[in-house]
Amino acid sequence: MGIKNIHLGALDSFRGVAAISVVVHHLYISSAVSEWDFFRHSSLFVPFFFALSGFVIAYVYDKATFSFKHFMIARGFRILPLYYLMLVCFIALECLNYVLYHHFGLFFKNIPFSGDRGFDQILPNLFLLQSWLSWTYPLSFNNPAWSLSVEWYLYIFFGILMFIPKFARYTIMLLGASFAYFHLIGFVRIEGVSGILYFCSGALVYWVFTLCKTKPLSPLLLTILEALIIITSVYIITSGQGQYAVFIFSGLVLIFGLSSYWKNTAYKGGGGLPIY
Description:
- This protein is mainly α.
- It has one domain (9-266).
- It has ten helices and no strands.
- The chain has helices at 9-25, 37-40, 45-61, 68-104, 122-126, 146-161, 166-181, 190-212, 219-238, 245-266.
- α3 (45-61) packs across α10 and α9 (219-238) runs antiparallel to α10 (245-266).
- The relative contact order is 0.17.
């Protein structure tokens, strides 16, 4: 059975935990679980999605035949329709705010088409550049869309790299992650730099995964590693030590990716990778 047919179910679970934690992080309910240190620092899970994306995209598309056109169409249909629908809705609301302000002296929260919702922010949002350019606001109009802005250009980056030999591809990934980690990409916003760091790290984890997948560990050792990486991840998030998160998240994806692969191989598990 080929590697593409093995379902890495544990990564589904961590994606769900991360998503729920980010939602709780934004609740701000006094004296509730949302105020626990773990959830107060759960914004660290957002770059975890980039690392997971880098791993899964490499996992799914690491094959002899790769079509950049089909890859980008698949990626585009996944994120662009909802992205543009919400952008149109937010611009329409801003237009309503403009009418209310100029005809009735009312406005929702801010002066219409000002600040992070200014006219100069529309074009960057149309091209998903709000998280990359130094003069743009990543949270303009539709706040959560900043991560889609990052993700979209990481897809393009990955697709282009698929045209070069694998060694050169992962060398560039390593350089990209290194430059991002040491803040050597000064012309890009921090959101884009974070995306490069975690996405490239996730892709590099996949490369390590391919080297390790044929050498299964003993169940006891694997269980110990799983427990250690979970405990360490919880500690890093709870204490807000974001500078170490990329290493811990990479280890988490690697260990549980291998664990799922070995367990599904042993039990003849199958299926695709549903999260992508």
